[in-house]
Amino acid sequence: MGDRKxxxxxxxxxxxxxxxxxxxxxxxxxxxxxxxxxxxxxxxxARGPDLIVLDLGLPDIDGLEVCERIRLWSDVPIIVLxxxxxDDAKVTALDAGADDYVTKPFSxxxxxxxxxxxxxxxxxxxxxxxxxxxxxxxxxxxxxLPQHEVRVAGARIEMTPKxxxxxxxxxxxxxxxxxxxxxxxxxxGDGYGTETQYLRVYASQIRKKLAGRPAPDLVTEPGxxxxxxxxxDDD
Length: 235
What we know:
2 domains; Rossmann fold; Arc Repressor Mutant, subunit A; 5-stranded parallel beta sheet; 4-stranded antiparallel beta sheet; alpha/beta
């Protein structure tokens, strides 16, 4: 790749660091590593990675705290590695600022797909339109914020205000998992956070309106939240 991206791998298991380093370097990434939370913070500050793969189970500083500390001063994409079935840890990590998660044991194709999506989203967020003129585009889907319109392949799709807010939030963060609490507080307000039944209803309504059209997929992450993905980004 012309512009080689630098990936910071943070894990205290030598075998995982070695395997990730070999796989990512084979695909054209520069890889640096850290074995502790303190090293991760130092290397993030000193080396400016383009993306961080962060294990939550570190020997010194909890991975969630590492994520929170980095988010105080950097928007670098963070993909966390979590133990299988640890839904609470996934939600907490995403709420702490992680962009995505991969469950151990994981496949390299899955991790690489998540990594590509996170890097693309970060580039869009840095160089995308301003809020005053924003038309969010995800494939053939357009979410026109000033006009409050949704279009797919140029055809207008009628949306209620809450459907529009839900879809616009997912489109702004396309490819990223947004937790139930994030969506509820952004779309419904600060007084909401546990009313996940609202999201199930609205997600179903949005899917029906987009069905049969060349639109991205509204994917449910069971127990976690939702993400909007292009079919080639879905695993």
